[in-house]
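We store sequence with structure; for instance:
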Amino acid sequence: MNGQPLNGRPIRPATGRPAADRPAAGRPPHARAHPAEARTELIPPVTDDDPTEFIRAHRGSLGYRDPETERIRPAGQDEPDDRVHLDDLADYDDHDDDNHDPDHDDEFDDDPPPPRRKESVASVIVRSVGEIMVTLGVIVLLFVVYEVWVTDLVSAEKQEDVTVALDDQWQHPGPADPQRQQKFEFADGEGMAKLYIPALGDDYHFTIVEGTSAADLETGPGHYKKSALPGQPGNFAVAGHRVGKGAPFNDLDLLSSCDAIVVETQTSWFVYRMLPTSDDAKNWAAKAADPRCAGVAPQTGDYARATGRQIVTPQQSEVVAPVPGNPSAKTPAEQRQKMITLTTCHPKFSNRQRMVLQGVLVREQPKNAAAPTEVPAELRETA
């Protein structure tokens, strides 16, 4: 360098350093470096000017001394492998982290962990009650799912089996037995008739089984065994579930006065119509103009307690008596009205009360052997 201008600016000796102490021309400045130094890069003389600018201007023109050969390597050549870079230091840090033993951290932890706060009795009780309530909620939910959906699937299979058996019996009757045909003798749980309610849809039909036990009602609507038979004088009474187990009577609350309730047996169709409700009976003259109400009217005399719809307690079994609501009536059996009674639980999801629907027979239609597919016109009625 020898004081030659750099970028148009002269190089002046550093303050406090005589020119005589500077290395002679041609002598490498690193020759005075201490032999113990592993490597010394060429450092330009510090001038009165900004040394940073000088170093930036000469970057790439300096060299370093190889500690093994004591030779100067020009800048730009590969440095020895033992040079330490910032990236290498980061690698060492990662290496230390990987081999760090967390078990020894306790040696440097001056402060012990804070003591665990003890729960109060009230908080323990509240938490326990909450857990119990959640558990009970899950159990109730599972019970509802079972009652509403699972039992429906089971009952649907049973209903299909009993319907197929009844159809086969009707299509392939055994030897003529007038006594059996007249008495309608059936075993418990055996299909004995079919029920249709057009107002609840074209697809509403269930096979009625004999008996009202829990097992019988899992199959379908059950006939009260001591009540009258379809089409006979007296009260043909049928019970059914409102929720779960097929729920055949789920929508009985949707029926109105004079809606048709059709019962099919092996030989005949029996068309009943719902009696007037308490509200309709108050203004029956206007309602009676409906052609569907022909043969229907509010009941009087021994039958005054019979009505289209009523809510009773489970103990009020007189609703299924031969004269509905009047078990002590002295009406001769052959003079009794031909009626139908449907009973189910009320309200939904509860058996606290009973909903009772009652109707009266308005006509009978024998089956036509020449036209087995012929059905009553009432089955085509809409709500």
